[in-house]
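User: Good morning. I'm curious how magnesium ion would be positioned relative to this chain. Could you predict the structure with it bound?
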Amino acid sequence: MAELEQRGDRTPAPAKWEYASAPESREIVNLQERYGLFVGGEFIEPRSGEYYRTLDPSSEEPLAEIPQAGAEDVALAVRTARDAFEDGWSAAAPAERAKYLYRIARILQERSREFAVLESLNGGKPIRESRDVDLPLAAAHFFYYAGWADKLEYAFPHRRPKSLGVAGQIIPWNFPLLMLAWKIAPALAAGNTVVLKPAETTPLSALLFCDVLRQAELPPGVVNIITGDGATGAALVKSDVDKIAFTGSTEVGKAIQRELAGTGKKLTLELGGKAANIIFDDCALDQAVEGIVNGIYFNQGHVCCAGSRLLVQESIYEPLIEKLKRRLTTLRVGDPLDKNTDVGAINSRQQLEKIEELVAAGKEEGAEIYQPPCRLPEKGYWFIPTVFTNVAQSYRIAQEEIFGPVLSVLTFRTPDEAIEKANNTPYGLSAGVWTEKGSRILWMAQRLEAGVIWANTYNRFDPASPFGGYKESGFGREGGRHGLEPYLDFDGAEAFGG
Ligand code: NAP
Ligand code: MG
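Assistant: Good morning! Here's the predicted structure, ligand included:
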């Protein structure tokens, strides 16, 4: 109790539970010392001759050497994808395309433990999340789009959908396999071929996925995976592709948009966010606390749609913050492969530094910081789950995306004020509303400028539900029937019956 009083915290001490560690075995994963680029159905050495090391962010232990694809490698991958498109894939019966997508989905399910362990090893996320969220959702995405592959005419009646050709796809490190699934599944269902670049820090699940493609006997060249850093991504943007699908930061998204302006290449951008999670005084408080925790500490807060700005109605501010702080003391931070872990490692040193910088700015600007007592491992990249109260809208921690386990709390009195504060951001990806009144949920949803709005829940995903942003969070939708559209061309709307 003395320790709590010192922190000026009035919440009673939670019961002390000690967990025995329950690590998932790494045995199931077979790492190669060095990987190749996956082009034309084979692993090939990069023409650039360059490699870099990918790490386990929880221990800083090197895991494997990864090719750094250069412009020549990118051009070869795109040419290979073009040939595969012209030599058969574009003419393949739609039901054939569906067959491969179903196979991929089933193989992902069969090998899900292997993928989950690898995802946690290379990315730092808790095994509980990679096992229960990333993998099931990735497989579900392939199942879902398999179903659309031979029904495109019904998805877009009277519009004569046609595939585009080669899609260049660039993804971030926060959900490596899931973002790959979000990109590849609709592209193939729509009859395109693909060149995908995973993020520099998390290439391993994409490289293991190449093995799934071979197991599924997908024709060579239909999917090509090229690894490397931002320069590889930039080369892919400049290459001879028909479309770029990008998920990542708003800054890089803007640069890509400038680069593609006037080229006729299609573009979709899924960018950053600074979502408001809005708590009304009539909601179920304990349930809301779970939603707040899931909203910002899930995947270490490395989530574009994270509920990073908590808007609390003034009348329940004190009890809510008390409950939230108390809940934070029960979060277990540590080994990503431990099945008890709630919050794993920060993905990279660079990301850790960005979080530290913004947290320092929050303190300096005058916000009050709360962090539960927590012992962090000595090696690796870690950040304690953090709550800032006393936050003004102008503070950097209320404006900028932190992309880490850091929550900024603001208050409001009326629904109008909640809307005004929630929309006071250049972003518009997602939002959460907690209230028992259905009419208020609808009233709020009509006024919130966000692509996804969750009501009395947070961070829920389904392949049938479109996802994407407003304003600086990007344009285009992934998931659902909407997610097919960016991968198709249309002959133009036909007159009914035409
Ligand atoms: P990032 O730096 O923009 O990187 C995203 C991807 O683009 C990576 O593969 C990256 O390669 C590559 N890249 C970097 N510079 C490039 C360039 N000039 N041209 C082409 N590609 C380039 O973003 P990040 O920091 O890795 O990821 C975090 C950001 O992604 C956050 O802002 C988050 O909100 C956003 N995000 C959005 C969504 C969404 O669906 N809206 C989902 C997840 C993440 P390297 O890995 O080598 O840098
Ligand atoms: Mg980057």
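Residues 170-174, 197, 199-200, 229-230, 233-234, 237, 247-249, 252, 255-256, 270-273, 304, 401, 403, 429, 474 surround NAP (ligand 1) (CB under 6 Å). DSSP finds 16 helices and 19 strands in the chain.
Let me know if you'd like a different ligand tried.
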